Amino acid sequence: MTNHVSAGFLTRANALFRKNLTFQKRNIWSNVRLIVIPFYLCLLLVGIQVLFDTQVNNSADNRCGCQCILKNGDGKCERKSCGLQYSSIKQAAFCAFPNPPPLLPLLHIPRPETRSVDGSRGSCRRRGSCPVTILVTGNNQSLGAILSRNLLRTSFTMNSSDIFLRNLAYNVLSTTSEADYTNFREPGIYSDLPIFNIQPRCKSTPNLSFSFRQPPLKFYKEVRCVRGLNLWRNNSKEINDEIYKGNYRQGNHEEIINEVATAYDFLDTDRNNFNVAIWYNSTDKGEFKMQDRRVKMVRVPRLVNLASNAYLQFLRGPGTKMLFDFVKEMPKQETRLRVDIASIIGPIFLTWVILLLFPVILTSLVYEKQQRLRIIMKMHGLGDAPYWMVSYAYFLVISTLYIVCLMIFGSAIGLKFFRYNDYSMQFIFYFLYINLQISIAFLLSSAFSRAETASVAAYIYVFGSGLLGGFLFQFMLEGLTFPRSWIFVMQLYPGLSLYRGLYEFSEYALKKTLNGSDGMKWKHFSDSAMDEVFYIIIIEWFLTLIAAYYMDRVSSSAKYPFVFLKNPFKKSPSPKMHSFRRQGSAVSIEMEKLDVIEEREKVEKLMLEPSTSHAIVCDNLNKVYPGRDGNPPKMAVQGLSLAVSAGECFGMLGPNGAGKTSFINMMTGLVKPTSGTALVQGLDTCNDMDKVYTNMGVCPQHDLLWETLSGREHLLFYGRLKNLKGSDLNQAVEESLKNVSLFRGGVADRPAGKYSGGMKRRLSVAISLIGSPKVVYMDEPSTGLDPASRMNLWTVIKRAKKHTAIILTTHSMEEAEFLCDRLGIFVDGRLQCIGNPKELKGRYGGSYVFTMTTSSEHEKDVEMLVQHVSPNAKKVYHIAGTQKFEIPKEDVRISDVFQAVEKAKSNFKVFAWGLADTTLEDVFIKVARTSQTFNVFS
Predict the structure, then answer these.
(1) So what family is this one in (predicted)?
(2) Distances (CA, A) of 118 to 121, 125, 380
């Protein structure tokens, strides 16, 4: 039953949706494996966390030390006690400190090899005898000199080898060791480095040792004297320049190190006002890692005490002192190392996990393009809008299931990255990004022609984005000196905007792990920079979707991608080319045969008075491919004028390269004509191709099928595109399968990938004819078929052409003569002749073909025999005693030829002879040779 109403948008979308659904059912396990990937990746993260907990978090070095105090008879420990007294120095930081011990107030000084020196005494660095420099400035130089002298004591006070903090408070004690993250582990006390006492001059007294006992810890330290040098500078600018001038090179790394211990600017200090600014060294020489969120302690209290004491002595005399006995931290409970390694590596790891969908989507889109599956769907009526809507929705559903499974699996197996952050916020972030990712895949699919190349590029993007985020972008985020504006610019790269969002989730999960604060909530939306990331993703999604649709339209229409950037004042070459073709036609019209001229005149009348009786009308159609690599332009189709009516099968014959495929490509919208007009059902193929597709069927030269879909499912899909529904659809599918002999033995429900070449060819023909399209193009439809199947297929095509205009290309003269109402022979892009098979044979084959085989010495006798029968006969073939002649029909009667042969047999031996009428193949060869010869000499 024929349905002449074109399928609407929803009908075509429903057809594609059903086809995709069936296709996914065939590939259900591939989809399941794709969606389950997050589960395995989350398990991998959990495994990494368990390994880290075992080897690091629960390591004996990262918890307070313990000792067994009671063992049973088997030697096993029944009771153990933990505390500071059982701990190493490293373990002590994790112990409880209900009563923290008082610790020495130390001053940080440069190492001997980095201390400031003047040019004349540079050798002191090699000997390690450089003094510790303290710079002083202020508005009142005389007052500054007094305060400078009061900073350091002239003697070292000790009572015994076992001294108390009060004794040490009279001295300026210092250390070259770097500060730690907490004073519980002051390296100046715990390390093996000595403690230095800064004095104006060091006496020849021996180095002293003392012990500092604060139960249960006991330390033995060596105190050495180091000379302190107070230097006056005129202003703070000089101090600032001197502090930051030193470059100290160690190996291949250059570090900026303060060469002075400290500097004081007493500003406007006088007897009534004490005002001081202090410079101090907080450089840690690169040991502090950006990813370590802890901050090292700074030894500032002793610096303040020195300045205060100096000013107090200035006011009250040397007998007045402000003693600084000790520093002490707040009490704390016993702690354990808690590092959530899954959250730390979460940003780079989950960037890879989420981006793994990108190669899948891009490869799928490019594969349809590479296999020309999309174009064949479009030729059968599937518009761009239904394709985009259904394909986008499909990838969105798969991606959404992917991230939902990721969140569920991650939360179920205990990953804090997912548990500690708001689920709704996470889902919206992932959902927005997968939409952007799908849009990018659609955009980039226009740039690739092979799925393998697209897959390689996509995986480079995936792993490159993770590596850029983890090893570059994160350092810029945490660095205080990197401009925030450049952070914003870098986030315009989609992979880094994803990384930034995951990094923020990771930060809040780590904070909750370490100090119990809230994870990422909606109240933190603005403070966490997630608002910036959301806005970037949404805007890029919108712009990318528009660009993707534009590029898709451009690539499908073969237009210049940036047509809006072309020079508006540059003249178009099209009119000139068009006039050239017209002129060329006028010059060569004398050489055209009468039938071609009549066809051209017929087309010109149809163009003036459009008629619905002719389904296809081509007026002076030309296609020129531009020259490349120094070769001239290729004239594929030249001045073709053709009209094909409904119910007619027009056959296109011609040698390879004659222009047949280029003509079919122009008519099916694959390429645009250089000039001329082509109308299908009155619609221009250049402007209304989408409407043309709804009434068109195509059987391409190469079968374009889905390997996993069955023959029945192919026909159901294309039938729906032709607006067949319900019982009409099922009936049309059944009849199509029976007509092409794919109905019996369960062949119809077998995947097309298991079909033989002939079965695929028959299915392609059935697809082109389903729904009774108004126009059908068949490119060598019977190629690869056995004789019985070929004859059956010809019968189907002949039956289908009753209400359909068919254009058929073939190299089989038998097929052309059986199917075609009219034939056109193409040579070098030109239509050389046109007419029905009998007319062509009568016009170009008005002769008999006489063949005779004799021995070589009787060849002259054969020639004389033929000349006697017909003086106008022409020899067309001669090899090894076999000769072939063309004898004009008007010159002889068949009986005369038989009589002459019988007479010749009595004079010499005839091995074989024959007389045949002209075949279509002879006509084809004759026209092709004559046309090619003319083209060579013209």
Answers:
(1) Belongs to the ABC transporter superfamily. ABCA family. CPR flippase (TC 3.A.1.211) subfamily.
(2) 6, 11, 89
Phi, psi for residue 527 in degrees, rounded to 5: -70, -30
Tell which residue, 924, 854, 921, has the closest CA to residue 883. Answer: 854
The CB density around residue 815, as the number of other CB atoms within 10 Å, is 21
Q: What are φ and ψ of residue 217, in 5° steps?
A: -100, 145
Q: Are strands 874-879 and 262-265 parallel, antiparallel or unpaired?
A: unpaired
Place of tokens 């020639």: 863
Q: Which residues pair with 111 in a beta bridge?
A: none
pLDDT tens for 891-932 read 778 787 888 888 888 888 888 888 877 777 777 777 776 665
Closest CA to 667 of 756, 537, 778: 778
Correct CATH for 846-917 of 3.40.50.9100, 3.40.50.300, 3.30.565.10, 3.30.70.100: 3.30.70.100
- CATH 3.30.70.100 boundaries in the chain: 846-917
Q: Are 807 and 644 in contact (CB under 8 A)?
A: yes
Neighbours of 142 (CB within 10 A): 7
Quote the pTM value: 0.70
* Longest alpha-carbon distance in the chain: 159
Q: What is the C-alpha to C-alpha distance for residues 301 and 248, in angstroms, rounded to an integer?
A: 27
For the stretch 836-872, pLDDT in tens is: 887 777 777 667 788 888 888 888 888 888 888 888 8
| DSSP at 753 | G
From 562, 551, 535, 536, select the one nearest 448 (Cα to Cα). Answer: 551
Q: Whole-angstrom Cα distance, residue 831 to residue 660?
A: 10
24 alpha carbon, distance to own chain's centre:
23
- Count of C-beta atoms within a 10 Å radius of residue 638: 22
Determine the Cα–Cα distance for residues 910 and 931; give it in Å rounded to an integer: 36
